[in-house]
Amino acid sequence: MAKITLSNLRHSYYPNPSKPDDYALKHLDLSWEDGGAYALLGPSGCGKSTLLNIISGLLVPSEGKILFDDKDVTHLKPAERNIAQVFQFPVIYDTMTVFDNLAFPLRNRQVDEATVKSRVEAIADMLEVTDMLGTKAAGLSPDNKQKISMGRGLVRDDINVVMFDEPLTVIDPHLKWKLRSKLKELHQELKATMIYVTHDQTEALTFADQVVVMQEGEVVQIGTPVELFERPTHTFVGHFIGSPGMNILPCEVSGGKAMFNGQSITLEGEIEAGEGKSNEIGIRPEHVTIADNGLEAVVSKVSDVGRHNVVEAMVGGTKVASITEESAPNLGESIHLQFDPAKTRLYRDGWIATKSAGA
């Protein structure tokens, strides 16, 4: 396995890029430690697949370097990088048995048969497909085909990194959680460096130790799932992660205070010095409570999602969502909302602009 470093990386599909918007990747400096589980998370078009192709060697970046354990691999071919890749659609040979599919990457490198048998049996046991080893792959269910595709990527012990490009896209929803759990188990057992590319926050947050959130070719935050949820450094992260996402409320800043709908809102800490084009308050629905006093609001929608209710209420002309496990108010009812000060932050031009408690 390898530590992967991306240094001063930029990439454009134009021959002569001249402005920031010409770049699919605008500027990246990242390091992924050997043996870590990482996710690239973001919407379609944010640059995550471009980055994956650069790491794998399918693309040469316009600028910057890719290092594997401090070795510059920027211009090496994919075959020279010792990378395994698992794609959206299972890459297996239907006419081969499961055993032969798993053995193929090893036999292709002329590994002796005793080692092939040992590695295949070990991976099959981890994947819980030992009883299928003699079965032709054509008869497998889609989730088992993807298991075999994953196994082909994991069977080699000389790979630097295993990369997963939206591997659960074609899997039925009720089976996805099984494969997510299995993949997490495999990482914990093999300690392989793994990078998982997805637009699905659930997949990213349940698999990765560190999540890289991307938007429009830029990294907006890197952190653990808890860090991304608890303290988003950008409004995009707050909106993209969580269901429902973070409330992002327009506000004015005056005298070091944030004013929303004519009322001063207590924040987690002091507002950092600086100016911007826009100011917004960010607070997650989990930290908005229905109380006896606070911001006056009128209930506009109630959604019962089983474990709790999501209450949407209008404060003036702005919608604010709240999550409550208590009985929900009625549509049109007047209520009061309170924000947890420790979880209420100011964002300036999208970026967090309050000092954290104790900072």
UniProtKB/TrEMBL annotation:
Residues 4-241 form the ABC transporter domain. It is found in: Cell inner membrane. Keywords: ATP-binding, Cell membrane, Membrane, Nucleotide-binding, Transport. The keyword Cell membrane applies. It is a peripheral membrane protein. Signal peptide: none annotated. GO terms for cellular component: ATP-binding cassette (ABC) transporter complex, substrate-binding subunit-containing. The keyword Cell membrane applies. It comes from the Bacteria. It holds the Pfam family ABC_tran. GO terms for molecular function: ABC-type ferric iron transporter activity; ATP binding; ATP hydrolysis activity. PROSITE patterns: ABC_TRANSPORTER_2. Belongs to the ABC transporter superfamily. This is Carbohydrate ABC transporter ATP-binding protein, CUT1 family.
